[in-house]
Amino acid sequence: MRRTVLRRVGVLALDYLYAGRHQLRAFLDRGTPDALVAGSGHLAPVVLLPGIFETWRFLRPLAQHIHSGGHPVHVVTALEDNRMSVPEAAALVARHLQEQDLTDVVIVAHSKGGLVAKYLMGMPDSGPRIRAAVTVATPFGGSSLARFIPLPSVRALMPTAPGLLRLALSRAVNAQIVSVWGWFDPHVPAGSRLEGARNIELDVGGHFRILARPELLAIVDEVLATAD
Fold first, then answer.
1. What is the DSSP letter of 12?
2. What's the pTM?
3. Which one, of 85, 51, 93, 87, lies nearest residue 156 by Cα?
4. Per-residue pLDDT, 73
């Protein structure tokens, strides 16, 4: 037990070190997302959805990996740091899909971004445009820790939040989702298992560090390969 506790403490420290480093990098990043679309071939388009308190720049390393494989990577800058409600965020992404006339889309999403992805896939206009989604560390069942944060955007992620409960009851698109999470997630203690989805638990600890792990990148590459 002591060894397990110490291991979790170590994971927590490394996870926040990763998050802090990449939040700083994202803050200093002055690049535009245009380069993630330019020069791509005709492979399936990818839409990248960040988690709460993250901008698309936080996920730039993941975006660059996907783009290096020949896929155009779209981001929705209007999401900013994704503190709006899930339906509001989904509406912004739906508008982007329509304006860019994107079809056969694969969504790659982190944390709350996965909730936005699932909501979007259930919308009658945007759903047919989306082929699949890879969600990483997404609180499909909510997070028991959300009640300790006195912010409406975080409280909306409580397991008993009405919006989250309604989304959980909608299972029509679950089979199109690949849900990936680590053995220990300090932000989503119950894990990210989604009924009817392809569920993959990696031997990786953390809510953020998982984004850079080769195991996750391999899963993303596999899903993209089947979409091409």
1. H
2. 0.95
3. 85
4. 96
